[in-house]
UniProtKB/TrEMBL annotation:
Species assigned in the record: Rhodopseudomonas palustris (strain ATCC BAA-98 / CGA009)
Pfam family, one: DUF87
Span of domain Helicase HerA central: 126-371
Database matches in SUPFAM superfamilies: P-loop containing nucleoside triphosphate hydrolases
Protein name listed in UniProt: DUF87 domain-containing protein
Amino acid sequence: MAEAVAQGAFGKVISVRGSGARVGLLPSSRLVPSAVRATVGRFVSIRTASSTIIAIITEVSSENLAETDEHIAVASVDLLGEILPGPLRPKFQRGVTNYPTIGDSVDLISSDDLRIVYEPTGSDQIDVGTLQQDPSVIAYVDIEEMLSKHFAVLGSTGVGKSTGVSLLLNEILKSRPALRIFLLDVHNEYGRSFGDKALVLNPRNLKLPFWLFNFEEIVDVLFAGRPGVPEELDILAEVIPVAKGLYVQYTSTDRLGLKRVDPKSIGYTADTPVPYRLVDLISLIDERMGKLENRSSRIIYHKLISRIETVRNDPRYAFMFDNANVGGDTMADVISHLFRLPANGKPMTIMQLAGFPAEVVDSVVSVLCRMAFDFGLWSDGVSPLLFVCEEAHRYAAADRAIGFGPTRKAVSRIAKEGRKYGVYLGLVTQRPAELDATILSQCNTLFAMRLANDRDQSLLRSAVSDAAANLLSFVPSLGTREVLAFGEGVALPTRLRFKEVPAHQLPRSEAAISTVPSAAAGNDMHFVSAVLERWRGATSHRDVPNDPGIAERPLARTLDAPMLQPSLGLDPDRFSLLKKPLR
């Protein structure tokens, strides 16, 4: 292409305005047909006296051209940046300082110019794929800019969004092996995408003591996601600080000489993350109930005690309540385990949320986001963390009436202030229109894949500040693995194609299950009974293996060990395994 363009001018500038210009396209038999094809999305170079301006074609039209006009068409272009001569080699910079003038020559960009634009400027660049316009040019992303100013991956179901996330995170781990990554895996599909670099957590091996939950979060757990009863909330707000003070008395060396003190003098609030015991909490409520003579008032206390007992005894909440006080104040151990400090060869944590009770997922996410931010805040950002939130619209919805307020607030704090404390945010969503616009606006690097919904496209248009916002007209027609990259992390707004991801790094999604039933399915009563056994096992107190790689062990698997990672290893022999007799 470069040789063909060099033989004759492709067009010339006929008008200039602000960040754009209009180019008259000239007929030329000296250009090969493939080079003559000027269409939207193609880059052009405008030669000025002191630099080469890089622009992108956003519109081409031959309407209303006079017969005497020397142009065969007129193209609108957006000015993106310029290549300036340097002491060693030419260098690209965003923005335009030397505007073109009428009559300046315009050419289709050469591969050499594209390489100058996209060449890596330092060691902090990762290779994510190739340019759609010229597959010989590698598309690099600047890690420092992408992470420190947050990023988002947007795209409808089935366009390769999860695969793109796996590619980005694996490349980040290669380039920055010491960076800690925390991934909220909503559909349990990333468990094997990162090999031995990741610790996989699920309800069976997670220990998140209930006393780490702040007041709003523990209320959300106790009331199963519904608004709390005001009278019961008043009681809880009064007794939780007292229960925390009692625990301190139990663990202090001179506890025999201490007496119970007034809650106001303890110094703890209902949100202070220090241990307390449910036994103390219930006994304090019971003690207050015993002092009441009014039967209707006692019912409120009785309901609250029943509510606490019900949640404590529910096996689905075992990760919060089982042995929650064993070992005393284990907050340091919990944070060390969750956020990989030290990493011990596994700098990444994958939190699989599919096995958690639906009523408690929002509270768990809120605790994790809040602790990630607070640890960064109080450690002055010494150990950076990338917090990746899959299906982000679930936890930070645009509609304030949807979702859990503290979760939205926790994600919002990371988005607005996290970069100051080394806590970076990566958002992944298929419905950007349902995501809080303020949070999305904090993401300065966007990877937009195919989006068919009009509301999603319009919100994306408002979020992109680059001069090439016209590129967004391509969003509905992007192919699988194709992406429009905008923002600080890329040299230019770019249409690129993510590179192939190795098979062992591909997320395993249930969406990939064939609609054609397997011949080995054996849909008989044994099969149904085996499925029910796994189903019930998820809410029983039996010991269940937690290892996400359990399917890879040579030992025969039996069904009294239900796996809670439905997407994490759908083996071809899963139906024959299910038909084994129950013990």
